[in-house]
Design a protein that fits this description.
The longest helix is centred in the N-terminal third of the chain and has 17 residues. The strands form 5 sheets. The protein has a 3-stranded mixed β-sheet with strand order 2-1-15, with helices on both faces. The protein has one domain: L-arginine/glycine Amidinotransferase, Chain A. By secondary structure, the chain is α/β, with parallel strands linked by helices. Helix 2 runs antiparallel to helix 16 and helix 16 packs antiparallel against helix 17. Strand 6 and strand 7 form a beta hairpin. Helix content is 33%, strand content 17%.
Protein backbone atom coordinates (compact mmCIF):
# COMPACT_ATOMS: atom_id res chain seq x y z
CA UNK A 1 0.00 0.00 0.00
CA UNK A 2 1.46 3.36 -1.04
CA UNK A 3 1.81 5.67 1.97
CA UNK A 4 3.46 9.01 2.58
CA UNK A 5 4.31 10.80 5.78
CA UNK A 6 2.42 14.03 6.32
CA UNK A 7 3.50 16.78 8.70
CA UNK A 8 0.79 18.61 10.65
CA UNK A 9 2.18 21.83 12.12
CA UNK A 10 0.54 23.70 14.96
CA UNK A 11 -0.43 27.30 14.33
CA UNK A 12 1.18 29.64 16.84
CA UNK A 13 -1.53 31.06 19.09
CA UNK A 14 -2.36 34.76 19.60
CA UNK A 15 -0.89 34.76 23.15
CA UNK A 16 2.60 33.53 22.15
CA UNK A 17 4.83 34.87 24.94
CA UNK A 18 8.04 34.29 26.87
CA UNK A 19 7.05 33.58 30.46
CA UNK A 20 9.82 31.00 31.05
CA UNK A 21 7.43 28.34 32.28
CA UNK A 22 9.34 25.19 31.38
CA UNK A 23 11.89 24.04 33.96
CA UNK A 24 14.46 21.84 32.23
CA UNK A 25 14.07 23.68 28.92
CA UNK A 26 17.16 25.89 28.76
CA UNK A 27 15.95 28.14 25.93
CA UNK A 28 12.59 28.71 27.59
CA UNK A 29 14.11 29.73 30.93
CA UNK A 30 16.89 31.87 29.42
CA UNK A 31 14.42 34.01 27.45
CA UNK A 32 11.91 34.49 30.27
CA UNK A 33 10.24 37.93 30.28
CA UNK A 34 11.48 38.86 26.82
CA UNK A 35 9.02 40.62 24.50
CA UNK A 36 7.47 38.24 21.97
CA UNK A 37 5.97 38.88 18.56
CA UNK A 38 2.96 36.56 18.08
CA UNK A 39 2.30 37.81 14.55
CA UNK A 40 5.86 37.16 13.42
CA UNK A 41 5.89 33.76 15.14
CA UNK A 42 2.69 32.67 13.40
CA UNK A 43 3.88 33.92 10.02
CA UNK A 44 7.24 32.15 10.47
CA UNK A 45 5.40 28.92 11.19
CA UNK A 46 3.13 29.36 8.18
CA UNK A 47 6.12 30.10 5.95
CA UNK A 48 7.77 26.83 7.00
CA UNK A 49 4.56 24.92 6.31
CA UNK A 50 4.16 26.50 2.89
CA UNK A 51 7.80 25.85 1.99
CA UNK A 52 7.43 22.15 2.78
CA UNK A 53 4.19 22.00 0.79
CA UNK A 54 6.03 23.66 -2.13
CA UNK A 55 8.69 20.93 -1.86
CA UNK A 56 5.90 18.45 -2.55
CA UNK A 57 5.38 17.34 1.04
CA UNK A 58 1.93 16.59 2.38
CA UNK A 59 1.50 19.39 4.90
CA UNK A 60 -1.37 20.01 7.29
CA UNK A 61 -2.40 22.60 9.86
CA UNK A 62 -3.55 22.15 13.47
CA UNK A 63 -5.34 24.91 15.38
CA UNK A 64 -3.98 26.40 18.62
CA UNK A 65 -5.62 26.36 22.05
CA UNK A 66 -7.83 29.03 23.57
CA UNK A 67 -5.78 31.21 25.89
CA UNK A 68 -5.95 32.58 28.53
CA UNK A 69 -7.71 29.47 29.85
CA UNK A 70 -10.49 31.08 31.87
CA UNK A 71 -12.05 27.71 32.69
CA UNK A 72 -8.94 26.43 34.48
CA UNK A 73 -8.77 29.65 36.48
CA UNK A 74 -12.40 29.29 37.55
CA UNK A 75 -11.63 25.75 38.74
CA UNK A 76 -8.99 27.30 40.99
CA UNK A 77 -11.46 29.64 42.68
CA UNK A 78 -11.29 32.86 40.67
CA UNK A 79 -14.79 34.24 40.13
CA UNK A 80 -16.78 36.98 38.45
CA UNK A 81 -16.89 37.83 34.78
CA UNK A 82 -13.98 36.91 32.53
CA UNK A 83 -12.24 40.25 33.00
CA UNK A 84 -12.40 39.92 36.80
CA UNK A 85 -11.12 36.33 36.67
CA UNK A 86 -8.10 37.51 34.68
CA UNK A 87 -7.50 40.55 36.85
CA UNK A 88 -7.70 38.68 40.16
CA UNK A 89 -5.67 35.70 38.95
CA UNK A 90 -2.89 37.97 37.70
CA UNK A 91 -2.96 39.93 40.96
CA UNK A 92 -3.18 37.01 43.41
CA UNK A 93 -1.35 34.22 41.58
CA UNK A 94 0.63 35.63 38.64
CA UNK A 95 2.53 32.40 37.97
CA UNK A 96 -0.73 30.45 37.67
CA UNK A 97 -2.17 33.13 35.42
CA UNK A 98 0.86 33.09 33.13
CA UNK A 99 0.65 29.31 32.90
CA UNK A 100 -3.00 29.61 31.94
CA UNK A 101 -2.02 32.01 29.14
CA UNK A 102 0.69 29.88 27.53
CA UNK A 103 0.63 29.32 23.77
CA UNK A 104 2.70 26.15 24.13
CA UNK A 105 0.35 24.05 21.98
CA UNK A 106 2.33 25.48 19.03
CA UNK A 107 4.80 22.64 19.71
CA UNK A 108 2.65 19.99 18.11
CA UNK A 109 5.19 17.20 18.59
CA UNK A 110 3.78 17.12 22.12
CA UNK A 111 0.17 16.98 20.95
CA UNK A 112 -0.13 13.22 20.65
CA UNK A 113 1.43 9.89 19.79
CA UNK A 114 0.41 8.60 16.35
CA UNK A 115 0.67 5.03 15.06
CA UNK A 116 0.01 4.41 11.36
CA UNK A 117 -2.34 1.70 10.14
CA UNK A 118 0.53 -0.53 8.97
CA UNK A 119 1.54 -1.03 12.63
CA UNK A 120 -1.84 -1.50 14.32
CA UNK A 121 -3.90 -4.68 14.71
CA UNK A 122 -7.11 -3.08 13.41
CA UNK A 123 -5.34 -1.35 10.49
CA UNK A 124 -6.45 2.11 11.59
CA UNK A 125 -4.34 5.18 12.35
CA UNK A 126 -4.38 5.62 16.15
CA UNK A 127 -4.09 8.90 18.07
CA UNK A 128 -3.55 9.37 21.82
CA UNK A 129 -3.28 12.98 23.03
CA UNK A 130 -0.39 13.52 25.43
CA UNK A 131 -1.40 14.35 29.01
CA UNK A 132 1.71 16.52 29.58
CA UNK A 133 1.32 16.22 33.34
CA UNK A 134 4.84 17.38 34.18
CA UNK A 135 4.11 21.03 33.36
CA UNK A 136 0.90 22.65 34.55
CA UNK A 137 0.67 25.00 31.56
CA UNK A 138 0.80 22.06 29.17
CA UNK A 139 -1.47 19.79 31.21
CA UNK A 140 -4.32 22.14 30.24
CA UNK A 141 -4.12 21.04 26.60
CA UNK A 142 -5.19 17.38 26.14
CA UNK A 143 -8.99 17.71 25.97
CA UNK A 144 -8.93 20.46 23.36
CA UNK A 145 -6.12 18.69 21.52
CA UNK A 146 -8.32 15.62 21.31
CA UNK A 147 -11.20 17.73 19.96
CA UNK A 148 -8.98 19.24 17.28
CA UNK A 149 -7.50 15.89 16.23
CA UNK A 150 -10.99 14.39 15.93
CA UNK A 151 -12.08 17.36 13.78
CA UNK A 152 -9.07 16.97 11.46
CA UNK A 153 -8.93 13.16 11.28
CA UNK A 154 -12.68 12.75 11.26
CA UNK A 155 -13.32 9.57 9.29
CA UNK A 156 -14.03 6.68 11.68
CA UNK A 157 -13.29 4.15 8.93
CA UNK A 158 -9.62 5.14 9.03
CA UNK A 159 -8.89 6.81 12.38
CA UNK A 160 -9.12 5.71 16.03
CA UNK A 161 -8.97 8.31 18.80
CA UNK A 162 -8.14 7.52 22.44
CA UNK A 163 -8.53 9.57 25.58
CA UNK A 164 -5.27 10.85 27.06
CA UNK A 165 -3.68 8.78 29.83
CA UNK A 166 -4.54 9.40 33.52
CA UNK A 167 -3.49 12.84 34.75
CA UNK A 168 -0.76 11.60 37.04
CA UNK A 169 3.03 11.75 36.99
CA UNK A 170 3.20 7.95 36.98
CA UNK A 171 1.78 8.07 33.46
CA UNK A 172 3.50 11.24 32.32
CA UNK A 173 3.22 11.25 28.52
CA UNK A 174 4.85 13.83 26.23
CA UNK A 175 3.58 12.47 22.91
CA UNK A 176 5.61 12.25 19.73
CA UNK A 177 8.51 14.19 21.26
CA UNK A 178 9.53 10.86 22.81
CA UNK A 179 8.32 8.58 20.02
CA UNK A 180 9.90 7.76 16.66
CA UNK A 181 8.68 5.43 13.95
CA UNK A 182 11.32 3.63 11.89
CA UNK A 183 10.59 1.62 8.73
CA UNK A 184 11.76 0.89 5.22
CA UNK A 185 8.58 2.11 3.50
CA UNK A 186 5.87 4.14 5.24
CA UNK A 187 3.22 1.63 4.17
CA UNK A 188 5.08 -1.38 5.59
CA UNK A 189 5.01 -2.47 9.25
CA UNK A 190 7.70 -0.55 11.10
CA UNK A 191 9.33 -0.31 14.50
CA UNK A 192 7.83 2.14 16.97
CA UNK A 193 10.54 3.44 19.28
CA UNK A 194 9.35 4.85 22.61
CA UNK A 195 12.00 6.73 24.62
CA UNK A 196 11.32 7.26 28.32
CA UNK A 197 13.07 9.11 31.12
CA UNK A 198 12.25 7.00 34.16
CA UNK A 199 10.36 4.07 35.69
CA UNK A 200 7.53 5.58 37.72
CA UNK A 201 6.91 2.50 39.87
CA UNK A 202 10.54 1.52 40.51
CA UNK A 203 12.74 4.06 42.28
CA UNK A 204 15.75 1.77 41.99
CA UNK A 205 16.05 2.41 38.25
CA UNK A 206 18.26 5.22 36.87
CA UNK A 207 16.73 8.69 36.56
CA UNK A 208 17.94 12.30 36.31
CA UNK A 209 18.77 14.20 39.50
CA UNK A 210 18.49 17.86 38.43
CA UNK A 211 15.60 18.13 35.96
CA UNK A 212 12.45 16.01 35.81
CA UNK A 213 12.05 13.03 33.52
CA UNK A 214 8.78 13.86 31.82
CA UNK A 215 8.09 10.51 30.11
CA UNK A 216 7.63 7.27 32.01
CA UNK A 217 8.02 3.76 30.63
CA UNK A 218 4.59 2.97 32.05
CA UNK A 219 3.03 5.70 29.88
CA UNK A 220 4.85 4.49 26.78
CA UNK A 221 3.73 0.92 27.39
CA UNK A 222 0.13 2.05 27.89
CA UNK A 223 0.09 3.94 24.59
CA UNK A 224 1.55 0.91 22.80
CA UNK A 225 -1.27 -1.23 24.19
CA UNK A 226 -3.95 1.29 23.23
CA UNK A 227 -2.58 1.42 19.70
CA UNK A 228 -2.62 -2.38 19.39
CA UNK A 229 1.05 -2.54 18.41
CA UNK A 230 2.98 -5.71 17.67
CA UNK A 231 5.27 -6.48 20.62
CA UNK A 232 8.06 -7.69 18.34
CA UNK A 233 8.11 -4.33 16.55
CA UNK A 234 7.84 -2.10 19.62
CA UNK A 235 11.04 -0.89 21.30
CA UNK A 236 11.33 0.89 24.65
CA UNK A 237 14.63 2.66 25.32
CA UNK A 238 15.69 4.89 28.20
CA UNK A 239 17.03 8.36 27.60
CA UNK A 240 20.40 9.05 29.20
CA UNK A 241 19.57 10.69 32.58
CA UNK A 242 22.65 12.90 32.32
CA UNK A 243 21.51 14.58 29.10
CA UNK A 244 18.12 15.31 30.69
CA UNK A 245 20.04 17.12 33.42
CA UNK A 246 21.95 18.94 30.65
CA UNK A 247 18.69 20.41 29.30
CA UNK A 248 17.54 17.68 26.92
CA UNK A 249 13.97 17.66 28.16
CA UNK A 250 12.61 15.49 25.30
CA UNK A 251 14.22 12.81 23.18
CA UNK A 252 13.60 14.89 20.05
CA UNK A 253 16.18 17.39 21.34
CA UNK A 254 18.89 14.69 21.12
CA UNK A 255 17.66 12.27 18.39
CA UNK A 256 15.47 12.18 15.27
CA UNK A 257 14.54 9.29 13.01
CA UNK A 258 12.92 8.73 9.65
CA UNK A 259 12.44 5.51 7.70
CA UNK A 260 15.73 3.57 7.82
CA UNK A 261 17.75 6.32 9.58
CA UNK A 262 18.19 7.14 13.26
CA UNK A 263 20.23 10.33 13.71
CA UNK A 264 21.28 10.75 17.34
CA UNK A 265 23.94 12.06 19.69
CA UNK A 266 26.49 9.71 21.22
CA UNK A 267 25.10 10.48 24.69
CA UNK A 268 21.40 10.25 23.80
CA UNK A 269 20.52 6.84 25.24
CA UNK A 270 21.33 4.89 28.36
CA UNK A 271 21.99 1.66 26.44
CA UNK A 272 22.62 2.43 22.77
CA UNK A 273 23.78 -1.05 21.81
CA UNK A 274 20.64 -2.69 23.11
CA UNK A 275 18.50 -0.13 21.29
CA UNK A 276 20.28 -0.88 18.03
CA UNK A 277 19.85 -4.62 18.49
CA UNK A 278 16.13 -4.26 19.24
CA UNK A 279 15.51 -1.95 16.28
CA UNK A 280 17.28 -4.25 13.83
CA UNK A 281 15.38 -7.26 15.12
CA UNK A 282 12.07 -5.45 14.58
CA UNK A 283 13.05 -4.53 11.03
CA UNK A 284 14.09 -8.10 10.19
CA UNK A 285 17.79 -7.21 10.04
CA UNK A 286 17.30 -5.24 6.81
CA UNK A 287 19.81 -2.43 6.05
CA UNK A 288 19.54 0.41 8.51
CA UNK A 289 21.62 3.55 9.16
CA UNK A 290 22.50 4.48 12.74
CA UNK A 291 24.12 7.91 12.44
CA UNK A 292 25.77 8.63 15.78
CA UNK A 293 27.13 12.13 16.27
CA UNK A 294 30.29 12.01 18.44
CA UNK A 295 30.44 14.31 21.45
CA UNK A 296 33.85 15.44 20.20
CA UNK A 297 32.20 16.82 17.06
CA UNK A 298 29.06 18.31 18.63
CA UNK A 299 28.73 18.73 22.39
CA UNK A 300 25.42 18.23 24.14
CA UNK A 301 25.48 21.95 24.92
CA UNK A 302 25.83 22.84 21.23
CA UNK A 303 23.09 20.35 20.37
CA UNK A 304 20.74 22.06 22.84
CA UNK A 305 21.67 25.58 21.70
CA UNK A 306 21.29 24.83 18.00
CA UNK A 307 18.56 22.15 18.15
CA UNK A 308 20.44 20.17 15.51
CA UNK A 309 18.42 17.07 16.46
CA UNK A 310 15.15 18.97 16.89
CA UNK A 311 15.05 19.10 13.13
CA UNK A 312 12.73 17.49 10.63
CA UNK A 313 14.21 14.50 8.84
CA UNK A 314 12.01 13.99 5.79
CA UNK A 315 11.86 12.20 2.47
CA UNK A 316 10.98 14.47 -0.45
CA UNK A 317 8.75 13.16 -3.26
CA UNK A 318 11.87 12.20 -5.25
CA UNK A 319 12.86 10.06 -2.20
CA UNK A 320 15.76 12.36 -1.29
CA UNK A 321 16.20 12.49 2.50
CA UNK A 322 16.88 15.99 3.82
CA UNK A 323 17.06 17.85 7.12
CA UNK A 324 14.84 20.86 7.87
CA UNK A 325 16.92 22.83 10.38
CA UNK A 326 16.65 26.16 12.22
CA UNK A 327 18.99 29.00 11.27
CA UNK A 328 20.73 28.49 14.61
CA UNK A 329 22.35 25.34 13.20
CA UNK A 330 23.93 27.40 10.43
CA UNK A 331 25.17 29.94 12.95
CA UNK A 332 26.84 27.40 15.26
CA UNK A 333 30.32 26.64 13.82
CA UNK A 334 30.61 23.10 15.22
CA UNK A 335 27.11 22.11 14.18
CA UNK A 336 27.33 23.68 10.73
CA UNK A 337 30.65 21.99 10.05
CA UNK A 338 29.25 18.64 11.12
CA UNK A 339 26.13 18.99 8.94
CA UNK A 340 28.21 19.94 5.90
CA UNK A 341 30.29 16.81 6.36
CA UNK A 342 27.20 14.67 7.04
CA UNK A 343 25.70 15.41 3.63
CA UNK A 344 28.94 14.35 1.95
CA UNK A 345 29.22 11.04 3.81
CA UNK A 346 27.85 7.69 2.67
CA UNK A 347 24.38 7.87 4.21
CA UNK A 348 20.84 8.69 2.94
CA UNK A 349 20.87 12.35 4.12
CA UNK A 350 21.78 14.51 1.12
CA UNK A 351 20.96 18.10 2.03
CA UNK A 352 20.06 20.56 4.81
CA UNK A 353 17.48 23.34 4.40
CA UNK A 354 17.63 26.15 6.96
CA UNK A 355 14.54 28.02 8.19
CA UNK A 356 13.98 31.06 10.40
CA UNK A 357 11.82 29.95 13.34
CA UNK A 358 13.48 32.21 15.89
CA UNK A 359 10.27 33.09 17.74
CA UNK A 360 9.77 29.40 18.46
CA UNK A 361 13.45 28.70 19.13
CA UNK A 362 13.63 31.39 21.81
CA UNK A 363 10.89 29.59 23.70
CA UNK A 364 12.55 26.20 23.39
CA UNK A 365 11.15 24.59 20.24
CA UNK A 366 12.72 23.94 16.84
CA UNK A 367 11.23 22.66 13.56
CA UNK A 368 10.60 19.16 14.94
CA UNK A 369 8.67 20.55 17.90
CA UNK A 370 6.35 22.38 15.52
CA UNK A 371 5.03 19.32 13.71
CA UNK A 372 3.18 16.05 14.27
CA UNK A 373 4.04 13.24 11.84
CA UNK A 374 1.24 11.11 10.42
CA UNK A 375 1.88 8.37 7.84
CA UNK A 376 -1.18 8.03 5.60
CA UNK A 377 -2.29 5.83 2.73
CA UNK A 378 -4.12 7.40 -0.21
CA UNK A 379 -7.46 6.30 1.23
CA UNK A 380 -6.59 7.74 4.64
CA UNK A 381 -5.53 11.02 3.07
CA UNK A 382 -9.02 11.25 1.62
CA UNK A 383 -10.45 10.87 5.11
CA UNK A 384 -8.64 13.94 6.44
CA UNK A 385 -10.54 17.22 6.79
CA UNK A 386 -9.69 18.85 3.43
CA UNK A 387 -9.70 22.38 4.83
CA UNK A 388 -6.71 21.52 7.04
CA UNK A 389 -4.26 20.83 4.19
CA UNK A 390 -1.69 23.50 3.37
CA UNK A 391 -1.95 24.86 -0.18
CA UNK A 392 -2.04 28.24 -1.92
CA UNK A 393 -5.64 28.88 -0.88
CA UNK A 394 -5.21 27.97 2.79
CA UNK A 395 -1.86 29.75 3.04
CA UNK A 396 -3.35 32.99 1.73
CA UNK A 397 -6.36 32.70 4.02
CA UNK A 398 -4.29 31.93 7.10
CA UNK A 399 -1.80 34.72 6.41
CA UNK A 400 -4.68 37.18 6.17
CA UNK A 401 -6.18 35.75 9.36
CA UNK A 402 -2.92 36.22 11.30
CA UNK A 403 -2.40 39.75 10.01
CA UNK A 404 -5.97 40.63 10.96
CA UNK A 405 -6.02 39.23 14.49
CA UNK A 406 -2.52 38.98 15.95
CA UNK A 407 -0.54 41.54 17.93
CA UNK A 408 3.08 42.20 17.02
CA UNK A 409 4.21 42.72 20.61
CA UNK A 410 3.37 40.92 23.84
CA UNK A 411 5.08 41.11 27.22
CA UNK A 412 3.96 38.89 30.09
CA UNK A 413 2.16 41.89 31.63
CA UNK A 414 0.03 42.29 28.48
CA UNK A 415 -1.57 38.88 29.00
CA UNK A 416 -3.82 40.30 31.75
CA UNK A 417 -5.52 42.65 29.26
CA UNK A 418 -9.17 41.45 28.97
CA UNK A 419 -9.20 42.74 25.40
CA UNK A 420 -6.62 40.10 24.48
CA UNK A 421 -9.07 37.36 25.49
CA UNK A 422 -11.75 38.91 23.28
CA UNK A 423 -9.30 39.23 20.38
CA UNK A 424 -8.16 35.63 20.79
CA UNK A 425 -11.67 34.22 20.91
CA UNK A 426 -12.71 36.21 17.85
CA UNK A 427 -9.63 34.92 16.03
CA UNK A 428 -10.22 31.28 16.99
CA UNK A 429 -13.89 31.42 16.14
CA UNK A 430 -13.00 32.63 12.65
CA UNK A 431 -10.23 30.02 12.37
CA UNK A 432 -12.64 27.16 13.04
CA UNK A 433 -14.62 28.36 10.02
CA UNK A 434 -11.52 28.59 7.82
CA UNK A 435 -10.45 25.07 8.82
CA UNK A 436 -14.00 23.68 9.01
CA UNK A 437 -13.44 22.36 12.54
CA UNK A 438 -16.84 22.96 14.10
CA UNK A 439 -17.04 23.91 17.78
CA UNK A 440 -13.80 22.55 19.24
CA UNK A 441 -13.41 25.27 21.89
CA UNK A 442 -15.38 25.58 25.14
CA UNK A 443 -16.27 29.24 24.56
CA UNK A 444 -18.06 28.19 21.37
CA UNK A 445 -20.29 25.85 23.36
CA UNK A 446 -21.19 28.27 26.16
Amino acid sequence: MKCVEANFDGLVGPTHNYAGLSVGNVASKSNANAVSNPKQAALQGLAKMKSLADMGMLQGVLAPQERPDIYSLRRLGFTGDDANVMREAYKQAPHIFLASSSASSMWTANAATVSPSADTADNKVHFTPANLTNKYHRSLEPVTTGNILKAVFNDERHFAHHMHLPDNDHFGDEGAANHTRLCHEYGEPGVELFVYGKHAFDDNQPKPSKFPARQTIEASQAVARLHQLNNTRTVFAQQNPQVIDDGVFHNDVIAVGNRNVLFYHQDAFLDTERLKTDVLAGLDERPFHFIEVPRDSVSVQDAVKSYVFNTQLINLPNDEMVIIAPMECQQNPAVYSYLQQLTQDNNPITNVHYFDVKQSMQNGGGPACLRLRVALSEQEQGGVNKACWMNERSYTALQAWVNKHYRDRIHADDLADPQLLIESRNALDELTQILNLGSVYRFQKA
